[in-house]
Design a protein that fits this description.
There is one protein chain. By secondary structure, the protein is an alpha+beta fold. The protein has four domains: 83 residues; 120 residues; 67 residues; 119 residues. It is built from eleven helices and six strands. It has a four-stranded antiparallel beta sheet with strand order 5-3-4-6. Strands 1-2 form a two-stranded antiparallel ribbon. 17% of the residues are buried.
Length: 453
């Protein structure tokens, strides 16, 4: 082996060593590159996830914004619709008086005429004023002189038709309101007329046809008069009924006075006859007649006193009885009627009150005679004015008070008045007992026969 060969072998060995070194270096770099690539892939995966999350967050934010905008839009739309609902409710309430009945206020009369006839005359005069405005064409007017096809005549015809339609529409609304006015819708009917005029005038804005305020006011006056006329007629009927009741009281008192007078005359004749027979009798027959005379004398005295009392009550227009009665079964506890009667037999009045109009009879707690019964009754009514059950019709004499309170007021006027404290209410209490026993029997039957077996 020569030197050249050895040199070449050494070079090859060096080259192999260098190549192996670089190969190992390459392998190491390849591994590092793979590690970096793997790390890069991990970061890319994480980044991709972050991007996805960001996109989801962005989408969620966009959706949130859209929802907020939708909510705001719905809220605004709801407010508008609710406002429209309130407007429509008020409009409907004008035509349906059953709505908002709890908000009805007490009507204050606009007029003060003494009789229903005076109201009728006033209504007639108001209608004449309305007719005058219609004839003079001041009820509904047009402020513009219109032309149709450059024709004033045609324009005038158009305006006249519009005025007639407007007048008819408004009058129909007013007639319906006036015909149906009652105590519980007077304010609604008033609003109905005013609203009708307002709405019709708005619809006629384009042709300048308007209902005059004066004509609307006359229609409102007619409405008020129609309602107050109804109330006055009802009041007069009640007054007439009270007058007829008082006339019946007077007639009954007159009958009682005549009956008492006849009764006294009868016993007077019987006594005179017995006395005449006794003057001729003797022995046992005389004793019998004397006993009969004593009995007739007592009855004559009682009849005389009754006749005197009846005559006194007939002559004294204010003499009578003030009564305090209750009816637990009909009206409940602590409800008392405080009234007055001039009848000689005052219980007749109580029996009348307990007729078929109430389910149970009245219990009498006091029947107080007075030379001035109206004054006593008025004093008691005045003392309990705020305790009336009916604050509108003062002829209804029922009060929510206790019997002790009534006693205290009566004793201020009449110290010797007598009161029955406990109300018997016999039929009512018997009815309650029967109802209770029936309920108990039904319960026992239900227990004996179970619903399920």
């Amino acid at each position: 082996m020569n030197g050249t060969t050895i040199f070449l072998i050494l070079i090859i060995v060096c080259l192999v060593g260098i190549l192996y070194y670089f190969y190992n270096k390459y392998q190491l770099k390849q591994k590092e590159n793979q590690d970096c690539l793997n790390q890069l892939n991990k970061y890319e995966a994480r980044y991709s996830k972050i991007i996805d999350v960001d996109e989801e967050v962005e989408e969620a934010l966009k959706h949130k914004i859209q929802l907020q905008e939708t909510i705001q839009s719905l809220q605004l739309d709801y407010q508008k619709k609710y406002g429209l609902f309130q407007i429509l409710t008020r409009k409907i309430a004008v035509y349906d008086e059953d709505l908002e009945l709890a908000e009805i206020g007490f009507y204050k009369p606009h007029f003060d005429f003494g009789t229903s006839e005076a109201y009728k005359q006033k209504i007639a005069s108001i209608r004449e004023l309305q007719k005058g405005m219609l004839k003079s064409k001041t009820a509904v007017t047009c402020s513009t002189e219109w032309t149709v096809g450059e024709s004033r005549a045609e324009g005038k015809k158009m305006v006249n038709r519009a005025i007639k339609l407007t007048t008819r529409a408004f009058n129909n609304e007013c007639e319906a309101a006036i015909a149906n006015v009652r105590w519980n819708n007077i304010e609604k009917m008033q609003d109905r007329i005013s609203k009708a005029a307002e709405d019709i005038n708005k619809m006629n804005e384009s042709n300048h046809v308007y209902i005059s305020a004066q004509y609307v006011e006359l229609k409102l006056q007619e409405l008020w008069l129609a309602y107050e006329y109804q109330e006055k007629v009802k009041e007069e009927k009640e007054e007439q009924a009270e007058i007829r009741r008082q006339m019946r009281e007077e007639a009954k008192l007159e009958q009682e006075m005549l009956a008492a007078k006849k009764e006294e005359e009868k016993y007077q004749k019987l006594l005179m006859k017995a006395q005449a027979e006794a003057a001729k009798a003797a022995g046992g027959n005389l004793d019998k007649l004397n006993a009969e005379i004593a009995e007739l004398t007592q009855k004559l005295e009682e009849a005389h006193q009754k006749n005197e009392r009846a005559l006194s009550m007939a002559q004294q227009t204010k003499a009578g009885h003030v009564y305090v009665i209750s009816n637990i079964g009909s009206f409940g506890e602590d409800i008392y009627k405080i009234g007055m009667t001039r009848r000689l037999e005052p219980m007749d009045r109580v029996h009348e009150l307990g007729d078929a109009s109430v389910p149970f009879y009245f219990d009498v707690h006091a029947m107080i005679y007075s030379d001035n019964a109206p004054a006593m009754e008025n004093a008691l009514h005045k003392a309990f004015a705020e305790r009336r059950l009916n604050l509108v019709n003062l002829r209804k004499e029922f009060f929510h008070v206790t019997l002790d309170e009534i006693k205290d007021e009566v004793f201020k006027i009449s110290t010797d008045a007598e009161f029955v404290i406990t109300a018997e209410a016999e039929e009512y209490r018997q009815t309650q007992t029967i109802r209770h026993e029936k309920t108990q029997a039904e319960k026992e039957l239900e227990e004996e026969i179970p619903a399920l077996i």
